[in-house]
Recover the amino acids of this structure.
């Protein structure tokens, strides 16, 4: 296991570039299982979660060739077999292999996905949707057995009882090779899903999006294509919050400002000043940060993945702020680590907290817990007095490529120790 050692309160300056979206790259890589031949993806981040999904598919015969942020994916020799259970258990995103592999081969056995500590990730909505599309599902121990038992003979409309990103993705991917029209209502419409849809359109699939309704007209033969992954809005937001909390002006480049409207609205509310360009944000020095309330929601609401970084920003607001987490029951764990650094936090429930600022943070030995918590504690360490140790650096590697090198480039003092 590795750890980061950070000397806080350094002067930061310059710019930092945002890389490709982790969650878009993951789902589009799995979508390549629908295709025969070689697909080229650009702007693919070189991070641990991407490598984990690559490892799963390599064991099934898929060939991957990486050159910097370009990834060539050849599915010519993709075999009809079940994914390796041990590898599937290491990453929760492996559940979205179900849609494309089931569409391609009509049957699949896969264990419940693992790799997540922020709360349970039930797959009941995935199963419910696939059953409506002619799939039989049987749970045997900790393994799910999926079997296509009938072809659709007429158009199908699925209305999700609640919004689910993963279930929407799996349903889209399975629907792509069905020859009847499939309509998904109350669908998730995150930018990463729209990027998936843009990719699938290039392969020949006809897909329409109207509000939260996605209509798919599939076909059996899909062509291999080239596609560029969108920028990672969560990475972008993390770096913007880093700039705001350290009060060091930074230019965040390679972004899609339209994907972060809710964050910019909150910045205006709490007094964080910024300039926006077509593909960048320049975060200015803020003399005073005001308290606020945030409540997470599906896109275009406040992102659950930015709730932890925004939480540490609120430790520097002058007054009482409140956070309500509506998507994951165990996402507040990072707050206990912040209290070790001197933050004044009261848990009002397992999903709601009161943060009182302005509170100077001090160094401590802390645990990253999960991907977003780890990035949050890196931010906290940058403003803390003294030298902070963050254990379980690998959690941060899941979603942020070469984070220590990128932070060093703007002036931070950070090193990785194994």
């Amino acid at each position: 296991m590795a750890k980061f050692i950070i000397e806080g309160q350094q002067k930061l300056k310059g710019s930092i570039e945002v890389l490709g979206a982790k969650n878009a790259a993951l789902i589009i890589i799995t979508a390549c299982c629908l295709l025969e031949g070689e697909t080229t993806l650009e702007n693919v981040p070189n991070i641990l979660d991407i490598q984990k999904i690559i490892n799963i598919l390599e064991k099934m015969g898929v060939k991957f060739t990486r050159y910097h942020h370009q990834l060539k994916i050849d599915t010519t020799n993709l075999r009809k077999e079940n994914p390796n259970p041990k590898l599937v258990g290491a990453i929760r995103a492996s559940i979205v292999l179900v849609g494309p592999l089931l569409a391609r081969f009509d049957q699949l056995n896969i264990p419940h996905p693992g790799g997540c500590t922020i709360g349970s990730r039930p797959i009941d909505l995935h199963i419910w949707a696939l059953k409506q599309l002619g799939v039989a599902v049987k749970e045997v121990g900790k393994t799910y057995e999926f079997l296509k038992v009938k072809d659709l003979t007429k158009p199908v409309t699925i209305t999700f009882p609640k919004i689910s990103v993963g279930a929407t993705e799996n349903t889209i991917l399975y629907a792509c090779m069905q020859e009847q029209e499939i309509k998904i209502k109350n669908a998730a419409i995150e930018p990463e899903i729209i990027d998936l849809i843009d990719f699938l359109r290039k392969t020949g699939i006809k897909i329409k999006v109207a509000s939260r309704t996605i209509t798919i007209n599939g076909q059996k033969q899909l062509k291999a294509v080239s596609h560029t992954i969108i920028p990672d809005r969560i990475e972008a937001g993390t770096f913007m919050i880093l700039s705001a909390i350290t009060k060091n002006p930074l230019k965040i480049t390679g972004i899609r400002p339209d994907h972060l409207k809710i964050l910019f609205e909150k910045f205006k509310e709490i007094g964080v000043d910024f300039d926006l360009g077509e593909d960048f944000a320049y975060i200015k020095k803020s003399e005073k940060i005001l308290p606020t309330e945030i409540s997470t929601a599906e896109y275009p609401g406040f992102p659950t993945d930015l709730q932890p970084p925004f939480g540490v920003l609120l430790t520097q607001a002058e007054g009482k702020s409140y956070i309500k987490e509506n998507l994951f029951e165990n996402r507040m764990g990072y707050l206990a680590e912040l209290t070790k650094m001197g933050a004044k936090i009261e848990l009002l429930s397992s999903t709601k907290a009161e943060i009182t600022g302005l509170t100077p943070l001090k160094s401590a030995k802390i645990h990253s817990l999960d991907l977003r918590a780890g990035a949050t504690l890196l931010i906290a360490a940058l403003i803390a007095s003294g030298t902070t140790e963050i254990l379980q650096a690998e959690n941060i590697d899941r979603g942020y490529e070469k984070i220590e090198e990128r932070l060093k480039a703007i002036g931070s003092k950070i090193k990785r120790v194994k």
